[in-house]
Amino acid sequence: MNTLTPRTQTPDLSFPLTNGDTWNLSEQDPDSFTMVVFYRGLHCPVCKGYTQSLNKLVDDFKERGVETVTVSMDSEKRARTSIQEWEVDKLKVGYDLSEEQAYNWGLYLSNAINDNEPELFSEPGLFLIRPDGELYYSAVNSMPFGRPVLKDMLRAIDFIQENDYPARGEVNAMELQD
Known about the structure:
By secondary structure, the chain is α/β, with parallel strands linked by helices. It has a single domain, classed as Glutaredoxin. The chain is 31% helix and 21% strand. The strands form 3 sheets. Strands 5-4-3-8-9 form a 5-stranded mixed beta sheet. The longest helix is centred in the first third of the chain and has 19 residues, at 45-63. The two termini are 22 Å apart.
């Protein structure tokens, strides 16, 4: 598994959106952060609730200069079904995240354990990326639960902006051994 380090450049990331556009991290120019939320897919009821919560808060993030997008390894058909069934109308939703992209972002991968799940899918992750592509914050989960609370993220972003708080966690454990 690959681990991303705060204060370093994030990997390239590009994927199709359900609105017909292609989303590219390198083309994002938010006032504060780009927030990329990786979700498991249509099969996940926890993802449904999390995505619905994020959809309700998109404008609150945007007020803070944070552009949001969510993506999974689901096919276009499954992603469109998610939008429809989950009633997601404000959020940009991507699909066809590749196994290589998931690895490059340090996401855990899981194999299906029942017929409702895709053969292979990524577990959740949430990343805040500065406009220059530098990683500010990451949370990667090996299970569908335990994700950052989105309203807490809003309060954290307020604190970050009010206090010019730097990214933390930049010291690599391998550097400490030298």
